[in-house]
Amino acid sequence: MAAKPKGPPTVSTVKLSDLLRITPRRCNQLAEEGILVKVGRGRFKLLESLLGRIRDLEAQVSGSGTGELREFQTRLTKAKAELAEGEAARAAAELVPLEEVEKTWATIVSRIRQQFSSLAGKAATRCHDEETIQKKTVVIQNLISESLEELADSPIYSRRDPSDPRDRPAKPGASKAAAEADD
User: Fold this and answer.
1) Which of 35, 50, 68, 128 is the least buried, fewest Cβ under 10 Å from its Cβ?
2) How confident is the model over 63-99, as pLDDT tens digits?
């Protein structure tokens, strides 16, 4: 008959890690944290270590523990918050208030109206001496190109004072003088 071992049963790191379904490295970490009871190099007290791990897991589930689950949840929550803050900051930087967009488009439309309402007079003056339709067409095309280039090169700023009558978009049929007064 074999002699009974003295003292509480012990197990190796590998055997305990298999029982607890964790890695041997994690066994050593939990021993450093005081959860598992180490009795020597690579040896653990079986019952005390199992009870320690059960208590640790219970504490994690109840939320009172500082175990790995609680730590993971904290890191996850923090990461989600940082991600949401980053997305909100990007969205705020990319979004433009609707009122600002409307004012800018009103300014653009007003400038286009002004530019093209003066084309008829310019075309009449420049085409007066041209004898053929083809030459008149070229003059008109050049005037349109010049107008479009001028519009493309001019910066667009919307006015910010809603009480300023110049801030309102030009009405259809407004006179050329009124449109020029906007500039």
Assistant:
1) 128
2) 655 566 667 778 888 988 888 888 887 777 777 778 8
> Across the chain, which distance is largest between two alpha carbons, in Å?
130
pTM of the model: 0.35
| DSSP code of residue 162 | T
For residues 65 and 104, state if they share a domain: no
Length of the chain: 183
Vertex 70 angle, CA 64 and 73, to 5°: 140
Are residue 74 and residue 47 in the same domain, yes or no?
A: yes
Tokens 């300014």 appear where?
A: 107
Dump pLDDT digits (tens) for 33-64.
999 999 989 999 999 999 999 998 888 777 65
Tokens of 170: 């030009």
Cβ atoms of 48 and 9 within 8 Å: the answer is no
Residue type, 95: L
